[in-house]
């Protein structure tokens, strides 16, 4: 084998290894990604039924119910609502009427079971996705996005 053929074989082998590594990384990222959905999108069936995702908006006033470590509450975008069940300790800043994002999935009965709950960190902050959803929900139907 000549020198240029060896170099060509090394370059082709390197590109193939890079392609395989890239495919594995992208597959891992895609399978672990939790996409954000609004309660309106969840009610519309846009959220996945078989994998984890995030739902965010405001915690509806009067919806917080505690039973030892299990907490039930409702996240709303002022148009639709998603009931959430979470077992664990809520963040200190979590409260009714404030922004929150819950990550989880639907169980066999179709209820959203959260594995983590995030709350806003100061009185001016809301996750950008949640703020955008609330802004869109406030627009009249058919308004430009």
Automatic annotation (TrEMBL):
It is found in: Cell membrane; Membrane. SUPFAM superfamilies: Heme chaperone CcmE. Gene3D superfamilies: Nucleic acid-binding proteins. Residues 1-7 are cytoplasmic. Heme binds at residues 121, 125. Residues 126-145 are annotated as: Disordered. Belongs to the CcmE/CycJ family. Heme chaperone required for the biogenesis of c-type cytochromes. Transiently binds heme delivered by CcmC and transfers the heme to apo-cytochromes in a process facilitated by CcmF and CcmH. This is Cytochrome c-type biogenesis protein CcmE. The keyword Secreted does not apply. The keyword Metal-binding applies. Residues 29-145 are extracellular. It is a single-pass type II membrane protein. The lineage of its organism: Bacteria, Pseudomonadati, Pseudomonadota, Betaproteobacteria, Burkholderiales.
